Amino acid sequence: MIGDKRPEATLGSYLSDFVFGGIDGAVTTFAVVAGVTGASLSPAIVLILGFANLFADGFSMAVGNYLSTKSRKEFAEKIRKSEEHSVHTTPEEEREEIREIMSGKGFSGRQLTEAVDIITADKEVWVDMMMKDEFGIFEDHTSPFRSGIVTFVSFNIIGFIPLMAYVLAYFIPVISGRTFELSVALTSAALFIVGSVKARVVDEKWYTAGAETFLVGGLAALIAYIVGYLMRAHA
Questions:
Q1: Residues with Cβ < 8 Å from 212, sequence gap 6 or more?
Q2: The pLDDT value given to residue 206
């Protein structure tokens, strides 16, 4: 079968799901922590709203990732089937399109003829080139279900870090007076580290990606803190 020849997704394929799920989890959860702290509400409220955010937003993000990945795969499969049908029913027209594509890549004369012959000798390669060069479609071989699971797990694991100080305060009362400061430190470290890992996905320098993620997360937290502080009189 044609599908048997396609490359399978590796663990690296899900790295972006883990990274961006983790960043979103840390940023949104810490924004909740900062907003509640700015409003001078009790640590119990931090935990209630924080955990509610973890599970609700984490699930929502996972479902969104699952549906978007599934839609991309279904669209790519639809185009593939259409191209396979065209290759089967109107091979000369499709062959001419390959010729135009390869000509646009700088091939000419005998080299162009040989390139077209090689490509059209394998229908899977033929269809792959049509999808990439005619439609700009690069097939995603990741599993939508696994992408959703990775996103949910990452969101909850990294998103729990801003709440860790408040959980620990129940068992170590001595830190109860410094929970927000400890949460800031833990979240800052988490954002920088996950941002550094993001560099592998977006091809940036690790320290640039780490600093950028840290600053964006800090800005979101600052906004939430200010809003909470301004609304504290109504809390």
A1: 195, 204
A2: 87
Whole-angstrom Cα Rg for the chain: 25
Amino acid at 169: A
Task: Extract the residue ranges of the chain whose pLDDT is less than 50.
Answer: 1-8
- Asked if 142 and 14 touch (Cβ cutoff 8 Å), the reply is yes
Tokens of 11: 């663990």
Q: What is d(CA 210, CA 55) in angstroms, rounded to the nearest whole number?
A: 25
Total-model pTM: 0.80
Q: How far apart, in whole angstroms, are the C-alpha atoms of residue 30 and residue 35?
A: 8
Instruction: Decide: helix, strand or coil at residue 23.
Output: helix
Concatenate the DSSP letters of all residues of 35-81 into one string: HHHHTT--HHHHHHHHHHHHHHHHHHHHHHHHHHHHHHHHHHHHHHH
Whether 187 and 25 have beta carbons less than 8 Å apart is answered as no
Contacts of 157 (CB under 8 A, 6+ apart): 22, 25
What is the chain's percent helix, strand, coil content, to nearest 5? Answer: 85, 0, 15
